[in-house]
């Protein structure tokens, strides 16, 4: 294992040549992250599809990013949500050729077998601390979605529950059963 000689910033990461690997920053430490497995990737694409359709139908605008859309939560921390949504107002302030500055309005993480519950709770907290208004932690193994909102509000959805867009995407309503069954095909 190589020893890192200094703390890296989000700008350092953005300026690095593409070596074909995926990295995040955790408190200035460069961490190589693995790509998603098929089930996780399929769920992320499906959720992106639902979000894009809803945004188009409602004429909302904004930006939906996929699994390689990094967010610079602060100078020394980046995350790569599986799916994210940035409101039209925030999208106008973003450099579309750079990382998302701050957290997306909605961050979606699909749990991999190697992720612990504590890791996912910490990620949700990081997004919220950086300004996210809504975080969905989607767990294909348990067919649940943990919904996090500012001020420590957490709801666990399962079975026939409905996932909604809250204040971020008012009127968005997704049947969990439909989401998980669609990803099984």
Features of the shown structure:
tt1808, chain A, alpha+beta, three-stranded mixed beta sheet
Write a concise synopsis of the structure shown.
Helices cover 29% and strands 32% of the residues.
Largest beta sheet: strand ordering: 3-6-8-9-10-11
CATH topology: tt1808, chain A
- CATH-assigned homologous superfamily: tt1808, chain A
What sequence of helices (H) and strands (E) makes up the elements? HEEHEEEEHEEHEEEEEH
Given the structure, what is the number of helices?
5
Largest sheet: 6 strands, mixed
How many structural domains in the coordinates?
1
CATH architecture verdict? Alpha-Beta Complex
Assign the structural class, choosing from mainly alpha, mainly beta, alpha/beta, alpha+beta, or little secondary structure: alpha+beta
Low-confidence stretches: none
Structural shape: globular
The helix content is 25-40%
Please write the CATH class name. Alpha Beta
Rg over CA atoms, rounded to whole Å, is 16 Å
Could you give the count of β-strands?
13
Distance between the termini: 40 Å
Mean pLDDT: 92
- How much of the sequence is in beta strands? 25-35%
Oligomer: single chain
């Amino acid at each position: 294992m190589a020893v890192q000689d200094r703390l890296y910033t989000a700008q350092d990461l953005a300026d690095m040549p593409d070596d074909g690997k995926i990295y995040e920053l955790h408190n200035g430490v460069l961490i190589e992250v693995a790509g998603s497995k098929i089930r996780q990737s399929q769920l992320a694409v499906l959720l992106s599809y639902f979000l894009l359709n809803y945004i188009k139908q409602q004429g909302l605008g904004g930006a939906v990013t996929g699994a390689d859309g990094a967010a610079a939560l602060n100078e020394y921390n980046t995350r790569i949500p599986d799916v994210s949504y940035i409101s039209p107002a925030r999208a106008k302030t973003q450099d579309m050729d750079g990382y998302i500055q701050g957290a997306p309005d909605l961050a979606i993480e699909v749990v991999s077998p190697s992720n612990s519950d504590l890791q996912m709770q910490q990620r949700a907290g990081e997004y919220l601390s950086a300004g996210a208004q809504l975080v969905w932690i989607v767990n294909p193994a348990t067919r649940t979605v943990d919904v996090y909102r500012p001020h420590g509000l957490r709801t666990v959805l399962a079975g026939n529950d409905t996932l909604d867009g809250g204040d971020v995407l008012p009127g968005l309503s997704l049947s969990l059963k439909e989401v998980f069954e669609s990803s099984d095909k």
